[in-house]
């Protein structure tokens, strides 16, 4: 009987790749080139041989370590998955900034391109920078100022793209404080928008910014979602809605009314489609909206506000 190795060798698939990168190692930056020409069987062998080789998260003021104590060593990927050799490893940037590194060959929102964000972990245990002329993170072209009117902090967790689309990028807003959430424009990776989950007040990052389950109202089971994007002409789109997962028949708290709400406010010339507000006083899966109201995926109610960059667009988190 043909073993696994023989089966893979029989179906050899040559893979050629070239990566020109800088190497980050204890603060020293050098230029290197990596070239691969391996078969499918070689890929499997190398993955098994080097899975124990891990790359450290760079120490940089723009990079935020995510759930470092849970096993991912701070990288913006599954809480129990370190950055292993042979893999692309995404990272979280400070609020208002966007990850600015990914596989140069990954240009489309398709598998596996969409999962190849961040730095490349080499077999030398060093994280390689694919775009040496870029910073780790870049200022978002626009920001949604978000004010926390609650009496506890709120974690708003952004999904990782390019990456595994887990809500791993933390934005912590203290009570009475404001924070700018980054709005990507049409030139960002594959033209993708920012998707965020708004957690209950008081939930800590290790619960808020991970894929969880329906035993806890956090992470992908947070009550509200937010989408941010910018069109080619500079028009900003902010989409506020109920989380479809909150409404699923198997969610035990699907009829529970969260103790807080969210509203998007726009002031100035060019504001369109206000009001846009989730006020739980009106019940589950209800929004206050004009012509901008919609029913999205899973029957979740939402509303969209559009505005030019010259207008003042902001969000508030408030109690009922």
UniProtKB/TrEMBL annotation:
InterPro entries: Beta-glucosidase/SUN-like, SUN. The keyword Signal applies. Keywords: Signal. Residues 1-21 form the signal peptide. It holds the Pfam family SUN. Belongs to the SUN family. This is Similar to Uncharacterized protein YMR244W acc. no. Q04018. It comes from Pyronema omphalodes (strain CBS 100304) (Pyronema confluens).
């Amino acid at each position: 009987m043909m073993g696994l190795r023989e089966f893979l060798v029989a179906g050899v698939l040559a893979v050629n790749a070239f990566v020109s990168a800088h190497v980050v190692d204890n603060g020293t930056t050098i230029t290197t080139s990596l070239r691969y020409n391996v078969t499918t069987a070689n890929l499997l062998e190398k993955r098994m041989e080097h899975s124990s080789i891990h790359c450290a998260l760079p120490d940089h003021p723009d990079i935020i370590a995510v759930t470092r104590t849970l096993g991912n060593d701070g990288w913006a990927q599954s809480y129990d998955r370190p950055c292993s050799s042979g893999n692309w490893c995404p990272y979280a940037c400070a609020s208002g900034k966007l990850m600015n590194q990914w596989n140069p060959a990954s240009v489309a929102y398709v598998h596996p391109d969409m999962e190849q964000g961040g730095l490349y972990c080499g077999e030398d245990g060093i994280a390689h920078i694919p775009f040496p002329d870029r910073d780790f993170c870049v200022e978002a072209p626009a920001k949604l100022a978000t004010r926390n009117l609650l009496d506890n902090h709120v974690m708003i967790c952004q999904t990782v793209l390019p990456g595994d689309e887990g809500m791993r990028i933390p934005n912590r807003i203290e009570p009475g404080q404001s924070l700018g959430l980054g709005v990507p424009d049409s030139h960002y990776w594959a033209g993708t928008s920012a998707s965020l989950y708004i957690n209950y007040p008081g939930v800590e990052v290790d619960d808020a910014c991970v894929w969880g389950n329906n035993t806890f109202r956090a992470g992908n089971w947070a009550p509200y979602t937010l989408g941010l994007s910018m069109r080619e002409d500079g028009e900003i789109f902010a989409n506020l809605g109920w989380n479809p997962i909150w409404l699923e028949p198997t969610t035990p708290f699907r009829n529970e009314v969260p103790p807080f709400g969210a509203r998007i406010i726009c002031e100035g010339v060019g504001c369109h489609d206000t009001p846009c507000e989730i006020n739980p006083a009106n019940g589950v899966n209800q929004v206050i909206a004009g012509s901008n109201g919609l029913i999205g995926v899973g029957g979740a109610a939402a509303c969209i506000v559009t505005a030019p960059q010259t207008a003042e667009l902001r969000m508030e988190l408030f109690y009922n």
